[in-house]
Design a protein that fits this description.
alpha/beta; TIM Barrel; 8-stranded parallel barrel; 23% strand; 307 residues
């Protein structure tokens, strides 16, 4: 029988969470993640995580996920390293290509084709891994050029670098990058069967890259609908699906149904989480909108998984 997955939470707005960081730190949640979009009405994600690092002692802190397109690798490496140092080694870098149309031109960013966004993310990871090692001695890529040698300090607490988790929902170009460089992948609202379908291609890609499949963890983000039946749980899945289509996400990666929504009571949710564990998912992250939801999830589900 598979081990219970770690249970984490993600928040899309930090306004309520700041005053409850101690409560979250004392919970059974493995990590606290925040969204990172220019178009969201939130404070800067990595600046807020640096604040959260000083208010907590245990819970891991990161993004699900930071759009590579909106950042420069030197600056982002410094931000992640700052959080890792302030938290004594608890930072997690979730990284994606960026997909939401509203995040780009209205905020001054060009939105290149998907292939170019994947290449941008790959170059960013290559450069950041060099910076995390303590120095970089030149890099000549399509998107970034570094001339001469440069030191990078301080170093992250976690060696050789904080975990890098790449967001993706299907086999393809982003998976190839994850296979070469990532410590994990993060799916969004996929049910156990859909996750199982990409597990094989991921393992093949990781082996082709000269690594072990155990080097790349499977993680996933889900919605939550306490007390809802299966049919009722389809409603939030379809609402977010339709919203994501409006943001510009490809239809092929957002065919979301109720199996991507934790629903029912605590017993039912624990059973659903074990279905993810059975297909190799080691961490499940639940979208939370307020402290009451977090407390309920901690008491009714998280405490039982860790207990």
């Amino acid at each position: 029988m598979a081990n219970s997955p770690k249970l984490s939470i993600i928040i899309t707005a930090q306004d309520w969470a700041g005053e409850h960081l101690q409560t979250l730190d004392e919970s059974h949640f493995h990590a606290l993640y925040i969204a990172d979009h220019p178009s969201f009405s939130t404070t800067d994600s990595w600046s807020w995580l640096a604040y959260a690092a000083g208010q907590t002692e245990r819970i891991r802190l990161g993004t699900h996920v930071t759009g590579a397109s909106f950042h420069h690798p030197t600056r982002l490496a410094k931000q992640v390293t700052t959080v890792d140092n302030l938290s004594n080694g608890r930072a997690v870098l979730g990284l994606g290509t960026g997909y939401e149309v509203q995040d780009y031109q209205p905020y001054g960013f060009k939105m290149p084709p998907f292939k170019d966004r994947v290449n941008y993310m790959e170059e960013m990871i290559i450069v950041m891994r060099q910076l995390f090692s303590g120095s970089i001695d030149g890099f000549d890529g399509q998107h970034f050029s570094y001339e001469g040698a440069a030191d990078f300090a301080p170093l992250p607490i976690q060696r050789p670098n904080p975990p890098i988790i790449i967001g993706l929902n299907m086999a393809g170009l982003a998976m190839q990058v994850a296979a070469k460089y990532a410590d994990g992948i993060n799916t969004w609202q996929l049910g156990p069967k859909a996750v199982a379908a990409i597990r094989g291609p991921l393992a093949d890609a990781v082996i082709a890259a000269g690594r072990s499949p155990n080097d790349v963890a499977l993680t996933g983000d889900l919605l939550m609908a306490p007390g809802a039946g299966h049919r009722e749980a389809e409603k939030p899945a379809h609402q977010v699906r339709d919203m994501a289509r409006g943001w510009g996400r490809k239809y092929s990666v957002i065919e979301w149904e109720a199996d991507g929504v934790l629903h029912g009571d605590g017993d039912a949710m624990c059973a659903q989480l074990m279905e993810f564990a059975e297909v190799g998912v080691s961490e499940v992250t639940i979208s939370i909108s307020d402290i009451d939801q977090a407390i309920w999830l901690n008491e009714e589900v998280a405490s039982r998984l860790t207990g």
